[in-house]
Amino acid sequence: MDTNSQVYKLTFWSSIKPFLWPLLATLFFVLGFMPILAFTANSDSFKFALIIAIVWVFFTGIPPVVLEINYLLHDRKTSLKIDKSNGIVEISNRDNISRFLIDDIILIEKHHSGIEKGERFGRMHWHTFYYYKLLVRDSAPIFISRMIVVNLEKSFENTKCEMSWERFPIIKGEAHK
Predict the structure, then answer these.
(1) Strand boundaries in 115-176, DSSP class E
(2) Among 2, 85, 116, 157, which lies 20 to 30 A Cα-Cα from 61?
(3) Residue 175 pLDDT > 70, yes or no?
(4) Residues of the chain with pLDDT > 90: what percent?
């Protein structure tokens, strides 16, 4: 394989890595909240404490699971090959292979839920999930999650890259066809 060629695809580690922090944050809350539930078990405050725990787990545990499933379903059979020496990008999904020139990429949009510029407390604990939307000349937009490639913008130094903040960065586009 050429040293200027990079191949990215879904691996076990790349699929589980973005889910680790949200899982730890939820487990930390549950383990930290257990003594409060135990302390209030025989009081009138137990129902209130239990409702807080359920709401917390629902709002912090469910979104990362939804994002994980969305990204896995979207990218489960996708691979990305960047051949810088020939200036070609190849994206394959199942039996379909698309090739285009690196120069045909007009814009790379990174959709994430990290901190928006100027905002202090906007970071969701599922900030480890993000995806890229590649706008390619004469082609439909291509969506690739961070489970395939991390820091895609570094592979295309001469291509314009924009950050797009979303509270819940779910991939709405269809899988590469």
Answers:
(1) 130-136, 142-145, 160-165
(2) 116
(3) no
(4) 28
* Average pLDDT taken over every residue of the chain: 84
Measured distance CA(131)–CA(148) in Å, rounded: 9
Distance CA 168, CA 160 (A): 23
pTM: 0.80
DSSP H/E element including 105: strand 105-112
| Tally of CA atoms within 13 A in the half-sphere of 21 that contains its CB | 9
Judge contact between 104 and 87, C-beta under 8 A: no
In the chain, helix, strand, coil percent, each to 5? 35, 25, 35
Highest mean pLDDT among 12-21, 57-66, 128-137: 128-137
Give the Cα-Cα-Cα angle 152, 157, 162 (nearest 5 degrees). 60
Residue in the block written with tokens 């469910």: 62
SS3 (DSSP) at 101: strand
Return d(Cα 55, Cα 49) in angstroms, integer. 10
- For the chain, what are the domain ranges? 1-177
